[in-house]
Amino acid sequence: MGYFTKSGDYQPTMYDVLIRQKKLESAFYYRDLGYGMILFEHKTQGNRQTYLVNSRTQTVYDVMDMSATFNLFSHDDIDIEHVKTLPGADVALRMCAPYEFHIGRYHQGLAPVTWMIDPAAPTVLEGMIDCEGNMVEKFRHRGYLSSNLNEVSPKRILEPATSRTTPPGGTTMPLTNTGLVAWTTCKR
Question: Per-residue pLDDT tens for 76-120?
């Protein structure tokens, strides 16, 4: 939820803004990925601004900016030794997605991610993310994704939470008034 400033002005959160966009069907396309996750992609051609929203926790993850540069992923999320020999490795090392990028449907709190780094070859990288935007399986060339999805290991907290709540089941999850928060578990 938004908050009021000292001067009494209401400041909506990024979550509020995106959900309003969904209701108005204006600036963003949105796609329900299941498991309470929604992907918002800007409608304007040439603008690749993309957000991943966890509607259960009202958390917004900034996936990429308008120039298709990743904000959610880093070099730590790529198997560099494996990728650096592939066609299009320069695109992967620049952390941008000028071609195709796709987050699939969530299943048991995890979703496959595909990222084309060279359409001529074609070279496609695959990874796996959880509900907090943590990469649980590093980007590798298509076909190398492991089948053991039970080893979820969140890696980074992008911003401290502003408040906490305990849902049924006892797992503590943060709520936020800005985007980009990660925590340790996402249970149904």
Answer: 999 999 999 999 999 999 999 999 999 999 999 999 999 999 998
Cα–Cα distances in angstroms (integers) from residue 157 to residues 61, 66, 77, 171, in the given order: 12, 23, 14, 16
Q: Is the pLDDT of residue 37 over 80?
A: yes
* Residue 127 structure tokens: 């990874």
For residue range 16-36, list pLDDT tens digits in order: 777 776 665 667 888 999 999
Give the Å distances, CA to CA, from 102 to 21, 27, 69, 77, 148.
Answer: 21, 19, 14, 16, 21
Cβ atoms of 30 and 22 within 8 Å: the answer is yes
Spatial separation of the C-alpha atoms in residues 127 and 188, rounded to whole Å = 22
Q: Identify the pLDDT of residue 97.
A: 94
What separation, in Å, do the N-terminal and C-terminal C-alpha atoms of the chain show? 22
DSSP string over 104-157: ---BTTEEEEEEEEETTTTEEEEEEEETTS-EEEEEEETT---S-TT-------
Using DSSP bridges, classify how beta strands 50-54 and 3-4 pair: parallel, antiparallel or unpaired. unpaired
Facing residues of 183 across strands? none
For the record, the structure tokens of 21 come out as: 């966009």
pTM above 0.70, yes or no: no
